[in-house]
Design goal:
Keywords: Membrane, Transmembrane, Transmembrane helix. It comes from Candidatus Pullibacteroides excrementavium. This is Protein BatD. The chain is α+β, with helices and mostly antiparallel strands and 384 residues long. Among the domains are: 108 residues, Sandwich (Immunoglobulin-like); 34 residues; 118 residues, no CATH class. Helices cover 46% and strands 16% of the residues. The strands form three sheets. Strands 1, 3, 4, 5 and 6 form a five-stranded antiparallel beta sheet that branches. It has a three-stranded mixed beta sheet with strand order 2-10-7, with no helix packed on it. A two-stranded antiparallel ribbon has the order 8-9. Strand 5 and strand 6 form a beta hairpin. The longest helix has 38 residues.
Amino acid sequence: MKRIFICLLGGLLALPVIGWAQTSPRIWVEYDTAGMIGDAMNLRLRCESPNPEMVNFPLLQGQLSADLSLIPSDSLRIDTVFDAHSRLKTMTVSYLFSSYQEGAYTMPSFCFEYPDGDSLRSYCTDTGLVRFYAPEVDTTASIKDIAPAFNVGKKELLKEYWGKYDIYLWIVLAAALLCVAIVYICKKWKRKETLFVPKKPSVPPVIRALASLKQLKEKQLWQKNLIKEYYTELTDILRLYLSEAMEIPAVEMTNEELRSALKKRFPAKSWEAQNLMEVLDTATLVKFAKVLPGAAEHENCYAVVQEFLETQKKAQDAAKAAESLPKANTESASTDDSIPQTSVPGIQPSRPVSETPQKQFDDSRSQAGNKAESNEEKEAPTEN
């Protein structure tokens, strides 16, 4: 009986000790112990407990000591970490401090308060040592002037602005190009002009059209009962030729619009325009009204388009031949004007420069002979 009583009494006396061991927090301080003057040093106040919010941390402001100063830009930062294994929380209150003089300084003690039943218990940390070093300075070297300010050129400024706002400039440029394109298309649409003029091929359009027409004949579409495909290709060849060679937007025109354009294009050959329109009208009936013309009509439509293209080719060949003929050069005949010669007594008239020296010598001999004969006649005696 005495043993049971002693055990119960010992257990009752041990309960406060066990409760104290379970509820007492773990408190410590961490800080950097060395650095350069002016460096931001870390100071961390830590508490590990099931309820660290119940612990009163020391509130630090301004100065830690006479030589250690808090940096106010980051004077207080609180972090809490929960450990799932131990079911404990660790609260950390962080500060930044520094010193602006070289030397070793004492880190003061920090006191915490935490509840213990109906009273508050206090716990103070130990003091420590913090050392700050000054940078090495060569005092024997000469003092150098501060570098003067320099002007930034326009090229550097433009490069800097482009690097910062290039995405916005590209957006503005793309929006401007889009607006220009929209305005251009709207104007073309109002004027009913073609938006894109087809590029003229290196091969003449009439040659290409005749080649396509020949390929169409070789396909023998209407012989294979492909009537719609036959008339579609035939009218496409004709419309494409009119667009490329005559600058008539026939591909985008209806039959009525094309009829008016052809009449304006061929005012003296209305029958030619009428024949082409009959081909287009027949193709329209085949494609949309499902009309099935006879074989003679197929051949006739083909012949009309072929005759039109061959006529155009002959006209173009004749125009090229006329341009290639050399132009007649008119030569103006220049007549030599005769120079009048005046005879002066005692002076022989000058002869043309074109006379040769031999001819001049012969003329002088004949003149001398005539003169001698006249002198002999004067000296001869007269017979009575």
